[in-house]
Amino acid sequence: MARTSTSLIYRIISLILLIFLYETIGEENLYHSSGGTASWVNTYKECGGKRQSPISLPSAAKAKAQEKFPKFERNNMYDSIPDFYKLTKNYHTIQMEPRFGSGDRPNFTGGPLHNTYILEQLHFHWAAEDEDGCEHSVDGRKASMEAHAVHFNSKYNNIGDALSKSDGLVVVAYFYNASDDVKNSAMDALTNSFAYIYGGKTNVTKKTKRFPISKLIPEIHHGYLTYPGSLTTPPCSESVTWIVYETPIPISHKNIGRFREFYKINPYLKNNFRPLQELNDRVIIGRP
């Protein structure tokens, strides 16, 4: 009887481990599993929707539809120094969240927006090669890396509530191009902190050298495109208004190399970008 009970316990433990292993491999294989990104729709139906991202964009000056939107209005928290940044390494990106002891958070409105949107997090997409590292393309060209500043509509309690709403999210996309002799102390501070998350930990709260997040995502008023789209990773929620700044920001080869180092820990975190999706009947609006 005791042997039977012990055998059953071992079987249960083995089954739990197999389920855990299967789920972990599935997450780590987000971009390179059998069937690739096209297989996401098998689990996440919205990934097969009609307003998916990323897409191929014209330049703002060449967009068929153009608007002279009002200026964006940011609060001063983008230029404030946070108490610390929470750094997260997950199965598809490196993510940073500014944390302020006051409880205040960066937010903005204006442009094509009708509400105020609160910054939730900033994350990055890159590739093994400089010419193919971002998700969106502009005039058929891609930059070395793309940063996504994810915001949620302030009329909802949190990003979880906003995720399923058509006006729930705004993602501001910035391109980065690898270049020589580039000095950006904020990017240096961010990539220096990667040493804390190259190891096994996936969620790290670390008081790194502090800097205003505007040093990574500057304020913009023109030279951007906007369109209705989705998250570029599962669940691919079609709740995003995209604002894509078309002028790349320079990044040093050393710093972008530090992003690429993550593939040594997770081989699937080498080209963490989704292929371009169909435009369908959406309208892209340019603000030259």
Describe the structure.
The chain has helices spanning 2-28, 159-162, 185-192, 253-260; strands at residues 56-57, 65-66, 72-74, 84-89, 94-99, 107-110, 117-126, 137-138, 145-153, 169-179, 203-206, 224-229, 240-252, 285-287. By secondary structure, the chain is of the alpha+beta class. The protein folds into 2 domains: 1-30; 40-287, Alpha carbonic anhydrase (Carbonic Anhydrase II, Roll). The strands form 2 sheets. Strands 2, 3, 4, 5, 6, 7, 9, 10, 11, 12, 13 and 14 form a 12-stranded mixed sheet that branches. A two-stranded parallel sheet has the order 1-8. A hairpin with a 4-residue loop joins strand 4 (84-89) and strand 5 (94-99). Residues 7-26 have low confidence and may be disordered.
Keyphrases for this structure?
single chain; 288 residues; alpha+beta; Carbonic Anhydrase II; 2 domains; 12-stranded mixed β-sheet; two-stranded parallel ribbon; 16% helix; 28% strand
User: For the record, what is the CATH homologous superfamily label of the largest domain?
Assistant: Alpha carbonic anhydrase
Enumerate the spans where pLDDT stays under 50 for 5 or more consecutive residues: 7-26
Shape: globular
Q: What's the helix-strand series?
A: HEEEEEEEEEHEHEEEHE
Structural class: alpha+beta
What is the number of helical segments per DSSP (H or I, 4+ residues)? Answer: 4
Into which percentage range does the β-strand content fall? 25-35%
What is the rounded distance between the termini?
A: 77 Å
What is the CA-atom radius of gyration, in angstroms? Answer: 20 Å
Looking at the structure, the CATH topology of the largest domain is Carbonic Anhydrase II
In which range does the helix fraction lie? Answer: 10-25%
Compute the average pLDDT.
Answer: 88
Total domains: 2
